[in-house]
Amino acid sequence: MAGVGKAIGLGAAAAAAAGAAAAGVAADRAAAERRRLNELDPADGFAHVADEELKVIATDGLNLHVEIDTPRDLDPDLPTIVMSHGFCLSLRSWVLQRRAFVQAGYRVVLWDQRSHGESEVSDLSSCTIEQLAHDLRAVIDATCPEGPIALVGHSMGGMTTMAFARHSPELVRDRVMAVAFISTAAGGEGLTDLGMGPLVGRAIGQVGPRLLSRLAPHQRWLAPVRRFGRNVESSIVDRFSYDSPVSEGLVRFTADLILATRFEVMAAFIPAIQGHDELDTLTTLVDKEVLVVNGEGDLLTPPAHSEKIVERLPGSEHVVVRDAGHLIMLEHPEIITGQVLSLLHRAEVDAATAVAVADKPRVRRTIIDIAKGRRVRKARESREGREGRESREGRETGRTRTRASS
What we know:
This is AB hydrolase-1 domain-containing protein. It comes from Knoellia flava. Pfam families: Abhydrolase_1. Keywords: Signal. The chain is an alpha/beta fold and about 400 residues long. It is about 50% helix and about 15% strand. It has a domain at about 50-190 and about 270-370: Rossmann fold, CATH 3.40.50.1820. A hairpin with a 5-residue loop joins strand 1 (about 50-55) and strand 2 (about 65-70). Helix 1 (about 1-35) crosses helix 8. It starts with a helix and ends with a helix. Residues about 1-25 have low confidence and may be disordered.
């Protein structure tokens, strides 16, 4: 029996090794395909130098990193756009929108939520959506204490916006012209399902924080391990962030953003996200222009979560983007930029004509990013053409060397 058990153990180990090898081969192939699409990356890359950087002191004394971009000919009547990023990201995730908004004439304020990006790491007990709401108020008070504002939040940043509206209803009433909720939810139930059902969600909610807390002391050793398994890591990030072809450069940028977040911070925020419930708060925004955007293939906050927001806001607009995942602002940047700019235009028209948003009908639309599909085909054809030429040149060089040696 011992021999049989040993044989079974060896067989299981061999099967696991074979499975890991197959996964590695698949990941390598996927990485090669993504490298074919590096032409999709923005010409200016993913780095950005802000016009102004400052530290804002939160209510508990924590330093929050804030960046501001201001157009040369600023129209003071236009709202300042305040942008809040999502869980395990940073203000860098808005790089493509901030450039476009400034070019369109808007002043933009971005901030790293506590324990993310370049903001200070807080006590884990303060890693709550409630505290993030107070942080957002501090950022607004420090950077745009007067004048109209528009709030744009992605994922956890949208949750922050909702909690902020509950804590600062008078500011919302008097100064907020428009709100955009990107890939977010008003309730935390089901947000850790990862598209695999509530059983997985409950397991992640119960085990995830404990596991991350145990791994936290060893996070500094992660960098060399990441290098060895880079293609597998990229495939995982791609799977849960995007739902259309993207470049290897974008996936690496995304992975670096996510894994810059400390494990203990991830562990602390997971219960806060799961306990999030701001459905009733949405009534505070009933007279504001509200845009709700989701990717149809978003595994973290699928469109059903957005629909619950839209149901509470009669005059809101719900846009679902085909072939889009959770990080839709990086996957389909022109669509998100265009939708937010349209939102601001509607808000400006409402203010000029005294139209009541609550009297307007809800609008629900599904959008396909045709332009990106064309760019993907062009990039693939361009890369295949280069690879074909290189292959032919290589064969010709080999024949020339053979003739010369003979």
